[in-house]
Design a protein that fits this description.
- This protein is an alpha+beta fold and about 80 residues long.
- It has a single domain, classed as Gyrase A, domain 2 (2-Layer Sandwich), CATH 3.30.1360.
- Helices cover about 45% and strands about 25% of the residues.
- The chain is built from three helices and four strands.
- It has a four-stranded antiparallel sheet.
- The two termini are about 20 Å apart.
- The model has no long low-confidence stretch (mean pLDDT about 95).
Length: about 80
């Protein structure tokens, strides 16, 4: 089941969608990661909510058109986790 796979990758089902927080050594590393997320998201035509607090970046995925978590979100996560 996809929920087990997503959970094993550190993603949680939160109020706003599927969410994961990434921690880095400093702000510059976090910013570099945000830029990679942006490039990946443009290529996938699916964009997460990105929240940054110094060295932490939280990504949250939710398909707005469906007003729910969909296969599109799960697919994005699985592809993203393979690359990063």
């Amino acid at each position: 089941m996809f929920q087990e796979k997503i959970k094993s990758l550190g993603w949680e089902l939160a109020k706003e969608g599927l969410e994961k927080t990434f921690s880095f050594s400093d702000f510059q590393s976090a910013l570099s990661f945000i830029n990679k997320v942006g490039e990946f998201s443009e290529a996938e035509a699916h964009h997460p909510k990105i929240t940054n607090l110094y060295n932490q970046v939280t990504l949250c995925l939710w398909t707005h058109d469906a007003e729910a978590v969909t296969e599109k979100d799960v697919s994005w996560i699985l592809k993203f986790e393979k690359e990063y």
